[in-house]
Amino acid sequence: MKVIKYKVFFAGGYEKEELWLNEMSRKGLQLVEVPNGVRYIFETDETKCYEYQLEHLDESPSDIKSLEYIEALKQQNIEYVYSFNNWVYFRRDAALGTFVLHPDLDSKIDHYRRLLTVTGILALNTLVLAINSLCTLLNIYVLNLVITILLGISFLIALITLAQVFSRVRKLKQKKKSQ
Questions:
Q1: Which has the closest alpha carbon to 81: 90, 72, 73, 71?
Q2: 132 near 86, Cβ under 8 Å?
Q3: Which of 43, 91, 131, 136 is deepest in the core (most CB within 10 A)?
Q4: What does the domain layout of the chain look like in residue ranges?
Q5: pTM, rounded to two decimals
């Protein structure tokens, strides 16, 4: 039987999400998917108990580098459950003991740096939009023009990034066809 629960966690508090998922598993609710980041779909199965860990990957979970990483974890009996954006949900049978994706300080620091980068970009974009709205509200057109130019530059950077990603996908599809 499927059970749906709604819960909000912030990126910087992903450990709380892990604790909650582990608690749900001990109660017989095993994670199936998290389709929008706040809606958790569980399958009832009291015969199993998992230990969950989350990770924010640099690349998309479907990227070759990420797939190799996921495969390496699979060799350690760590199962890929689901991904939302670049957040990946992993689990392992609790009977095998606790597992840690970031056992040393360097890897944990690297993980938090990735979170800082993503969160920083989101915060900067939000700030620019808020200032733009405020300038429009206060009729400060010079500052509004500067912010509009900065938004245009941000859009071009995003467009270039999208072009690079689409190019990489096209190359990978071609490589896959040639195998």
A1: 90
A2: no
A3: 91
A4: 2-96, 105-178
A5: 0.70
Neighbours of 88 (CB within 10 A): 21
Choice between 178 and 16, residue whose per-residue pLDDT is larger? 16
pLDDT at 159: 65
Distance CA 93, CA 132 (A): 50
How long, in residues, is the chain?
A: 179
Which residue, 73, 29, 27, 28, is CA-closest to 53?
73
Nearest to 18 by CA among 85, 76, 94: 94
Using CA atoms, how far apart are residues 80 and 149, in angstroms rounded to an integer?
42
For residues 144 and 170, what is the distance between their CA atoms, to the nearest angstrom?
38
Cα–Cα dist 59/65, whole Å: 7
